[in-house]
Structures are given as structure tokens and as C-alpha cells.
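Figure 3 (text version): C-alpha cells given as input.
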């Protein structure tokens, strides 16, 4: 995510920014976001608190390829240090703006501008689903974040994610904001879980199960930018995949109605 402005000197070039925590206002636990702006040439690192300029005036993460206009207040370094201590103790952060905003900024998540996805209307699924990937695909470093700018289709059936195990590498995706896609009987058989465009995933680790290279991804919350808690344990996810494989192998070969639908890198 990046922050910039066309209205204020020194913000013409957007800068990298990281969400630290949500900040409560009276009557609204998610009104503001505390952001840490990275240092760039001529501009030191700084902390800001922001909220959207338009209704609903509650913090939300901008979609990939879109900008969110925000009001911004600069946080004094001593206040930021106190907030860090409060966060370490697990306590909520509370703040009320004093006076007008210091800056009018925009936030943006790089990526292609995308149309609303019709599959976003299904019920949420909490758990593990799968997406195949090429064995020759570049390994993803643990701790790295990957952005699905176009959305991500996964299946709860590892046979569909691997074309009946013809593909020897896959992602095991842990999350709670994927949508079950359940329309026609054919769709129901696919056991699809769809993650909306702009969803970010964190790489937790990898392992090999049943001769398949499995990379574990953990979906980040679209509001806070932090992992869905509790964090998944890589070994437990690999064990779950092994159980799922054993179950579907016993059921025989699956009909792959849409070849390639559940195969490919997160992009």
C-alpha cells in the first residue's frame, strides 16, 4: 500500500505505508487507522492517523487499482511510542482528532483496476482450500505477502486443484473471507472458494506431502491488514492436506469441469 497527495508539497511522489493498528473513536471501534509511512529521500519515517474523507467514515482497505481519499493527522513521536507500548500490552488504542486534518492524502494498492466480482455474494468459508501451481514456479519466501489483484479461485477438493494429482505443486490457502460459490449443480461439485480481488495472503512455509510440494498461504484480514487469527501452523495444514488427499483418493477420480480454473499463481 502507498500514500501520496496532489494537494500538499512533499507528497507528490507516493510513499510505502504499513498499517500498524486500528484506532478507536468514541462510539466507533474502527474509525481510524494508524499508519507508518516509510522514509524516502528527504523525508523521514513518520506516523499518521487517517480516516476516509467520505461516508462511511470508517477505516477500510482500498481495493487493488483504486484510491481511497483520506483525512490525515500527524502523530507525535512520543504519542506513537506510547501507542506501541499499549499495543504490546494488548490494550485498545483510543484517540479523538484535535482540530482540522494536517493533510489530505490518498491511499492506493497497486494493481489492475477490476470490475466487481459476481462471486462475492456467496456465504463465507472458514478453513483450508487449494490451488494448483507449477512445480517450476518460483518458490515463495516465508513471511512474504502476495496480492490477488484479480481475485483467486480455490477448491476444497485437492483433485480439482491438481487435475487429479497430475500437478505436483499447490497452494493450501487458509482464510475466513473466501466465498463459497454454490449455484448450479456443476458449481456445487467444484467446491469453489473465491477470494475477492485485492485480497492479500502471507506465505507461512512449505512442505512435501504425497509427492506434492505444498505452500501454505494465510489470508490477511481486509480491514486490518493482519493475518486471520490464530495463525495457522504449517505442519497442521500439511497434515490436513494429507487427510483430504486420503479421503478423495478413496472416492476415485473427479470430473474436472473447468480445466485450469483452480491452477495458477496468485497475481
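Below: residues designed for each position.
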Amino acid at each position: 500500500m502507498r500514500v501520496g497527495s496532489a494537494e500538499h508539497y512533499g507528497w507528490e511522489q507516493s510513499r510505502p505505508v504499513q498499517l500498524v493498528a486500528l484506532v478507536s473513536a468514541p462510539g466507533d471501534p474502527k474509525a481510524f487507522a494508524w499508519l507508518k509511512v516509510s522514509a524516502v529521500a528527504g523525508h523521514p519515517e513518520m506516523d499518521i492517523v487517517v480516516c476516509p474523507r467520505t461516508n462511511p467514515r470508517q477505516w477500510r482497505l482500498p481495493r487493488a487499482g483504486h484510491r481511497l481519499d483520506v483525512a490525515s493527522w500527524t502523530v507525535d513521536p512520543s504519542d506513537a511510542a506510547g501507542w506501541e507500548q499499549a499495543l504490546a500490552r494488548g490494550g485498545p488504542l483510543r484517540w479523538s482528532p484535535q482540530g482540522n486534518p494536517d493533510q489530505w492524502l490518498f491511499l492506493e494498492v497497486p494493481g489492475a483496476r477490476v470490475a466487481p466480482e459476481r462471486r462475492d455474494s456467496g456465504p463465507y468459508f472458514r478453513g483450508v482450500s487449494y490451488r494448483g501451481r507449477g512445480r517450476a514456479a518460483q518458490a515463495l519466501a516465508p513471511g512474504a505477502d502476495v496480492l490477488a489483484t484479480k481475485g483467486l479461485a480455490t477448491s476444497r477438493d485437492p483433485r480439482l486443484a491438481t487435475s487429479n494429482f497430475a500437478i505436483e505443486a499447490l497452494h493450501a490457502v487458509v482464510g475466513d473471507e473466501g466465498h463459497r460459490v454454490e449455484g448450479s449443480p456443476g458449481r456445487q461439485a467444484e467446491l469453489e472458494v473465491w477470494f475477492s480481488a485485492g485480497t492479500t495472503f502471507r506465505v507461512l512455509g512449505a512442505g512435501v506431502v504425497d509427492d506434492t510440494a505444498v505452500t501454505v498461504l494465510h489470508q490477511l484480514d481486509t480491514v486490518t491488514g493482519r493475518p486471520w487469527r490464530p495463525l495457522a501452523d504449517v505442519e497442521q495444514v500439511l497434515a490436513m492436506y494429507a487427510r483430504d488427499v486420503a479421503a478423495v483418493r478413496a472416492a476415485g477420480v473427479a470430473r474436472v469441469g473447468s480445466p485450469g480454473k483452480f491452477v495458477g499463481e496468485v497475481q
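The two ends are 16 Å apart (CA to CA).
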